[in-house]
Specification:
three-stranded antiparallel beta sheet
């Protein structure tokens, strides 16, 4: 199960932390159904906050950090999908009932969380970012890891995603989350896998639309047997941000792979793979409706993904309470425009 979780999820402004933004920014208004109205994606303002445990206010040049991440990715573009997975796994442990987990604290740096099967292979991504952390010590690991995920998505051709600093680093692993909070790739049966996927995302506070939008990130990257036990790419361009994962789910003829490994599905030409949890998106009628929309409308998915990914990275962050998605501001055009960083 731990290996299965490893497979499933596998701004440009210099600000001073002493400055505060007037309001957080929703990247878009949410749709209630696949046939809903169109929406807008936007940058979040660079909010400011205390970035260290002592609460000291230090200037951090986030534009320089962003540039450093971009430069590092130019030298190793294959690291892009892994940085997205790093940000995802750092943030995806949030539990809305207990208000624990999430990117706050960057607890993945510590055992036992660093050793969870779902996080296999992510030590390399953390090491990849360590020289940048050394250059900018006032930036927290939590902010660095989440910003790296955003920069990687944009570097692979994805949408601009709202990001702002303010996450704290915890001093040790006392607040590490328990194993099992990240999605597993397979729960043994069709029904159990569908229910598991929905339950994991609902625990974080995501609805069905957001769940499907986030899982579409599988277009970036591939599975490695050394990290998860699973093997193969989801699309033919694993370092490009695209909605191809949805189209492949609907158009390919998927069969169970016959091999000495965990259950996974393969395309007819054996070039591509899907996990049981990916197939759950088309096995379940409610989720399939969103798959069909996103397969036909890249802009809709990119916009919905941008909103959901920003929300994912901000779950549980004390500095961002109350979260922007809980504010009833969607219909206020003046507020919306003032909250954007153009």
């Amino acid at each position: 199960a731990a290996a299965g979780a490893a497979a499933l999820f596998g701004f440009s402004a210099s600000v001073a932390l002493a400055e505060q933004c007037a309001a957080p920014s929703p990247p878009q208004a949410a749709r209630s159904s696949p046939a809903g109205a169109s929406v807008r994606a936007a940058r979040a303002p660079a909010a400011a906050s205390s970035a260290n445990e002592a609460g000291k206010k230090q200037a951090v040049d986030y534009a320089a950090i962003r540039a450093a991440i971009e430069a590092a990715l130019e030298d190793d573009e294959d690291m892009g999908p892994t940085l997205v997975r790093l940000a995802w796994h750092l943030s995806g442990t949030y539990d809305k009932a207990t208000k624990t987990g999430g990117s706050e604290g960057a607890t993945m740096r510590f055992a036992p969380e660093s050793e969870h099967g779902a996080n296999a292979g992510l030590g390399g991504a953390r090491d990849f970012l360590e020289p940048i952390k050394a250059r900018f010590p006032a930036c927290t690991y939590a902010d660095l890891y989440t910003l790296a995920g955003v920069v990687a998505i944009e570097a692979m051709g994805g949408p601009q995603i709202g990001w702002r600093p303010g996450r704290r680093d915890f001093a040790d692993g006392a607040q590490c989350t328990p194993d099992g909070r990240l999605p597993d790739a397979d729960k043994g049966t069709l029904g159990d896998t569908v229910r598991h996927v929905k339950a994991i995302f609902a625990r974080m506070g995501f609805d069905t639309q957001e769940t499907v939008a986030l899982i579409g990130a599988h277009a970036m990257g591939r599975c490695h047997t050394s990290a998860s036990g699973y093997d193969g790419p989801y699309t033919l361009a694993p370092t490009a941000f695209s909605s191809d994962c949805y189209a492949r789910l609907l158009e390919e003829r998927w069969t169970l792979r016959q091999w000495n490994g965990p259950d996974q599905f393969e395309s007819e030409d054996k070039a591509l793979m899907m996990l049981p949890a990916d197939m759950a998106l088309v096995w379940d009628a409610e989720m399939r409706g969103w798959v069909e929309l996103y397969a036909q409308d890249y802009d809709a998915w990119a916009s919905d993904f941008a909103r959901a990914f920003q929300k994912l990275e901000e779950l549980g962050v004390k500095q961002f309470d109350p979260p922007w998605w809980s504010l009833n501001k969607w219909g206020d055009e003046a507020w919306f425009r003032k909250s954007l960083l153009w």
